[in-house]
Amino acid sequence: QRNVYRDTNAVPRNFDSTTLHLGLKEGQIASRILTVGCPGRAGLIAKVLDKSSPIFSHTSPRGFTTYTGTFERTRVSIIAIGMGMPMMDFLVREARQLVSKPLLITRFGTCGALCPDVAVGSVVVASPGSVSVMRNPDAFLPLPTPSGTSADEIDPIATGGAPHVRPPYLVFAPQLADPVLTQALLGELKEQLGSEHVRRGMNVSACSFYSSQGRRDAFFDDRNEDLLDVLRERHPSLASMEMESFQLLALARASRESVRAAAASIVVANRPTGDVCDEARLAYLERAGGEAMVRALVRFED
Ligand code: URA
Predict the structure, then answer these.
(1) Which residues line ligand 1 (CB under 6 A)?
(2) Nearest CA to ligand 1 atom 8
(3) Which of 20, 30, 52, 222 has its CA 20 to 30 A from that of 74?
């Protein structure tokens, strides 16, 4: 009977040498990576790859779709990872394991805008970087009762005082994007889409699409009524909100200088005005913006 995989205390591999989540092995992924959320968007952007070179494509059982080919004769991978910080963690760590050269990773996702003047159908480049907001489950523990067990007895290593004084959301300090790669993204996106449709701003990555993005849902105790105001007060340059860029930038910082990263996102919704992008504009931005993102990546001199 064979084990399901090997090397559980490092970066595990399947027995065909592929990593567990991306489902890729050496040679199937480039050192220049554009990551997106949606597999459809990856497929759309992959249409710009050179037709003269072979294009490798693979969808892993864990939901990662990869296209590796060339653009202007430079190797590049376009990888759809789905949503959320753990998916970004799988991508960055497994890609790092599979490629010997320094990595350049950019993200082209979708986001909600946090101020009325960031229009739906525009693109925000995360500059200078991204903060993060996480729901703090300790704040939702039951309050101590006179007769019964207190939350602190249930959770003796909890920090930050009793549940009623713990903040329901924790905000983490900015992680900075690579300034040179960011400038390259801004240049190509402005050239392709028109400078009036591209701006820079601080991003915030949330741990949920719902509670920590301030969405209301009466089925859950979320205590998030003033969350977006608190975030805007703390970081006045906040423009966009999504769920992945912070993790990408934080891992690049932790990578002992072996990963350079930057991020941009299409504004699909404006939270203060309630506007939502139409389908045709989104499809245009995915294709044209995606091509600009690939061009920035392959022309970047590292
Ligand atoms: N992605 C998010 O995480 N939030 C939004 O509001 C839109 C896209």
Answers:
(1) 110-112, 209, 213, 241-243, 268-269
(2) 111
(3) 20
